[in-house]
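Progress narrative, work stream C.
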Amino acid sequence: MAVDLEREGGLAVLRLNRPEALNALSFAVLDEIGAALDAVAAMAGVRALLVTGAGEKAFCAGADIKELRHRSLAEQKHGAELGQAVFAKLDRLPVASVALVNGYAFGGGAELAMACTFRLAAPQAAFGLPEIKLGLIPGYGGTQRLPRLVGEARALELILTGRTVPAAEAERIGLVNAVAEGDLLEAGRAFAGRFTRYSLPVLELARRAVQRAGDTALQAGLETEADLSTLAYRTADAEEGMAAFEEKRKPEFRDG
């Protein structure tokens, strides 16, 4: 198996495990990632997903180029739609995901990281969408997610030049949430701990509301926010949170 999925208490850890190929995304690996994400969605008690790559060099070096040669247009379109559909499962997970970028994240690897809710990078990590250098453009969501993270002008620069972005710059432009020294997996656990103590249903509603901001006009987004904030208000956890505030104690959320 090229994808490992482990359970660590309230966390699920998905690890790309093709270090000899820099964790490249063959179509078979994409299928394995999709199956693993389905398994995470069905796990009871999981509060967040961590996504990383095996080995010291790469988070994921992108698509397996050998598989892209000599394909028909229909096959190429199907391949792009497969990658998009697999990464879109991260948007629909009932829990937030954190990409732990331990090395190169190029092409499809950068797109996988961008599909996660959050991104942490090791100091040696590097990002890039180099498809333009092959006469191609990103096909697994990069042209859509990158401008939502860093703005249209900067996204166009990165996509049209295909240049590599080091970790420090990625943090500065908003491509990653933080650069983490030391054990990246431990940093991911600590980062997830900052939000997993809150109500899972309400966390999901908040994610849904923010996701709509990039997909719709302001007024329609505000209407969605009103609907979702009302749903949050009706939860038992909201009642507990407000009561705890008035009583000057920590709330005890029960995900209800």
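Work stream C, second folded protein:
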Amino acid sequence: MNVSSLNNARFRRQISFLRRQFLQDGESAFANILADSCIAEALRANDVQWRDRIFSPMVTLWVFLIQVLSADHSCRAAVARLVAHRVSQGKPSCSAETGAYCQARKRIPEKFFADVVRKTGHATVEAADTAWRWKERRVLMFDGTTVTMPDTAENQSDYPQNSAQKPGLGFPIARIAALLSLSCGAVLDLRICKYAGKGQSELGMLRQLMGVFSKGDVLLADRLMCSWREIAMLKARSVDSVTRLSAKRTADFRCGRRIGKDDHIVRWPKPVLRATDPETDCSLPDFLEIRETRVRVEQAGFCTVCIIIVTTLLDSDEITKDGTTNWI
């Protein structure tokens, strides 16, 4: 087993632990995170009318989250858990039939869930201890993934299957990307789009989320985000980036301004950019100053792994005593 597999195993165990904890805590676990004000504001924004006394928006959302986290994903098991919870709280029991719950869930638009995530995430970050930040700066992680869904005509229309698959042999597939706070793990914003098409890549979704960043923030992302245009756009907003070196680039530590062993600052010239936004592209600088650092990950019993980190965090005042820039 390599280091990556070991880290994935640890991550899966952590997720499994959190799932069990939420399921044991019941409604209180979500009540501490999901505020009524956030849900009410999301309902108003999506013009959702609600009259059901049993399956209120909060209860419907809670039952749906429990249904997703439970090993048994059936609606019947989710409603049974609600019935058990109401009885344990001394409240009158409700019907164990799933019709009312299914109807209540259908009344909630897809955009409502995304709005609740955003509002809850921002409220959580604002309430988090500022001591958790890195040098008093917010660090936001960006990553994406894909999900498949039932093969229905509606899903195929909104999220078509992979074009390489023949009709009827694939499932609808969507791409999801999110910005998360490193300090508390809350999702600040997210995007859901088709698997393929113009502007449907992870880089395209990152450009759509640029407005979430504030001056002084730091982006932490994987090597797919090691893109000159996006790094430059973030730097123009006074936002620094930290990623792995893209597989399309190579690092030559004989060049640039040497800081230490396997550590230097180089200039990345402006490449020929696709004409997606000519006005923005013209405003970008002619080059970027990038710090490249080779890091060796050592762990007993495993092979040493070398990775190259690229960042716009130059720390120039700490690198040279006289502030000069000596380029090789």
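The radius of gyration is 24 Å. No further action is required on this item.
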